């Protein structure tokens, strides 16, 4: 456990405030989707006792080309949902709305980053317009020879073409693998290779606070490495966004604009079996190798549709405008910018830029301009805004807001309270949503109008989610108040179906018990009201600014540099990021001499190397160098001790198994870079 987690738990343990739900009318909504505590209890009970009936009814609200014959076929750890059913997620997102007469309503609002010296750009797409663009690109993919089942890699900035590409893949049944635009060329190599993907859709570059991220150059570099590894990439599709110079590989590279120019604006949605793969999304685990999480068509579609509506109280025809600030490169963007929103017919905003460019008032200005009713962001952003000060918020008209959400990491009660007071003006319910790439959608969250909220708690399970806290050894449920592993005891429609190409890892990571429980990898406790409090990861994963990073990934990046002989990486408290990255390294003698002469040159080189191997967001916040790392006699690095050192505390931990105590003293004394 990292220190901020510890602090969170400390302040959470002393957190006694309770905010009761309030009438929907107070916030100008006609009703709550889940109508009070009784309704929630009743639906939850029905969904658990008779999932066939409950989820069958929810699924039937969407279109199926062939009806499903069986709702759930479960033999842990394998679930089949809506077996026999044939549908298409893109059809349900777009065509279904058009067929119901809503084609001219706004589906997607895109707000661009103000280009240097320019004005912010806004584009609006109706369901009909988005449908046309998606169909054109779907046909372009057809023309490239992409077939159902072929994985298309998408590595783009937050431009409309990203949403269009994702939906076009869904339309033709080609699973997408979106790689967050902050990842490096090496990260692309690993993911493209693991997915056996032959097509990459990218941009020339993306804007980041007025600067350019060279996406195409990264793809070129990745392609060169892939080629050398015997895995040539066949097609690279390039959207022009920033106008930077890019190398052009004739034959392989294609302009997006050329590909779609002559395509007809229609393309039949591919009939997809409920269990056909919809997408792969790579996420970090406790080894150096990222896992390709597999989500399939029917269950994910139903889960995101249902949870988005319940959690945010989505109501079409009430002027709602929803904005999730995540990047589509993460699961939050997949589920709660696109897939959960479009079928619910509430316009969704996609924002290209940063929270503080050109200034720190950017988010609030966007809320004011678009009269945003639903705002969903990460605790790290909230903490940054707290630090930047209320002055960027005061004077902005935030009166349109109705529901606020957070996701990605535990929110400390102080940040919660600020969000509630300064952004929500003490009127808006806050939904603190706990979930994971693997769960597809919300698992533990307050429902507005239903659940009283307690700052720092993600409260109670989503309808149909059977969550519990169990002892890590016995998998027996622990008494209220006690901490343990967070598990989900029954299947839910949006659950992952596997790790791409690694059955054993899937079983070992999530299902290492004989009860068929899904093990989330988070520690948590439940209070006397049954509310859940997440205590943080129990594995070697850390949440840095809500970005999930495996400490092993950073370690392998570090030892991949010739300077580093050995590295250990742990989480450390960080005021804004929640958890920062602390790295402990031993240097190769020749480099140690270099370091003595010019420490900055070496630390810069190491940070740059991590940025190159993973992405800039994985750069260590604190680097320490010593001749040795604290180890047990059997040679295991004692990370819990390193966590104390990184946090600058003496946790008075048991050090009896430590081989050499001097090592620890040296680390405590050494300088932090
Ligand atoms: C959606 C997403 C998953 C991990 C998860 C947990 C942490 C997410 C949280 C939260 C406390 C919340 N997490 N939401 N912790 N409260 N509301 O973030 O997916 O990137 O896969 O990360 O994030 O540790 O296990 P992902």
TrEMBL record:
Pfam families: ACAS_N, AMP-binding, AMP-binding_C
EC number(s) stated in the UniProt entry for this protein: 6.2.1.1
Name this polypeptide is given: Acetate--CoA ligase
GO MF assignments: acetate-CoA ligase activity; AMP binding; ATP binding
Record-linked InterPro entries: Ac_CoA_lig (IPR011904), ACAS_N (IPR032387), AMP-bd_C (IPR025110), AMP-bd_C_sf (IPR045851), AMP-binding_CS (IPR020845), AMP-dep_synth/lig_dom (IPR000873), ANL_N_sf (IPR042099)
Species this chain originates from: Engelhardtia mirabilis
Entry keyword set: Acetylation, ATP-binding, Ligase, Nucleotide-binding
Enzyme class, broadest EC rank: ligase
